[in-house]
Amino acid sequence: MLDSNDIENLQEDLGGQDLLAELNKLSLEDSKTGRKKLDKDDSDSEEETKESTTVTEAIRSVMSSNNPVFKLDRQSSKIKAVMECLNENVLSKPGEKAVVVSQWTSVLSLVERELKAMNVQNVTLSGKVSVPKRPPLIDALNDPQSKVRVMLLSLCAGGVGLNLCGANHLLLLDPHWNPQLEEQAQDRIYRVGQKKDVHIYRFMCVETVEQSIRKLQEAKLKLAENVLTGARHNASKLTIDDLKELFNMNPKRHEDDDA
């Protein structure tokens, strides 16, 4: 994600226009009919034409190769926040260890790059690691005498039965539409054998699909509590309504907002 400095630089290219405000004017109808309307509807006012042009310029600025978000060697705002959290709560305190969880192995690779640059010993446990090779990684984290301070854990690899009580900090880098997976990941460090206070950190980028995923999580947890009388809702697929909610296409929600 872009940080405030990156946004300011992009806004300079737009003559001071608010980049996020312009992009938020887009809708699915704009992408389908907007260009045709500009070409055929001669009754458009100059103000509407100017607004459409500004939105087009905003799109071009975001999708440009000059946009810092496309630079592989750049540290995103989320990775910065993650590293600040690790430095403040884990790496600066002897004996503290952490598990960093993401559903994307590519994101874990970005964190691994930062840890290596700081000479912080870490291990990675994902679906790419064969079962026979996993116990040594787990033991390295759980051993108080080991120099391993951080484990990078793939969300789907952190299933039931995995004991990571050697760490007492867990960082969830991105929300998953199924909240049960996140609860399982949290249980990896909060279990029998844990002797320290457990700390859970969630990271979420505002004004992105991550906020919609979070709302979907809350809805599913509420459904499990109210309908299934305490049993966990074990849905394995996203419904059509779920997808509409994620991409802001739910007509009922828009009607409620207008009311």
Number of helices: 11
For the biggest β-sheet, the strand order reads 2-3-1-4-5
Judged by helices, strands and strand pairing, the structural class is: alpha/beta
Dominant shape: globular
Distance between the termini: 32 Å
Mean pLDDT: 78
Query: Percent of residues in helical segments?
Result: 40-55%
Poorly predicted regions are 31-38
Major sheet: size, sense and barrel closure? 5 strands, parallel
Order of helices and strands: HHHHHEHEHEEHEHHH
Number of strands: 5
The percentage of residues in β strands lies in 5-15%
Radius of gyration: 23 Å
InterPro entries: Helicase_C-like, P-loop_NTPase, SNF2/RAD54-like_C, SNF2_RAD54_helicase_TF
Biased composition (Basic and acidic residues): 30-40
Domain Helicase C-terminal: 78-244
Keywords: ATP-binding, Hydrolase, Nucleotide-binding
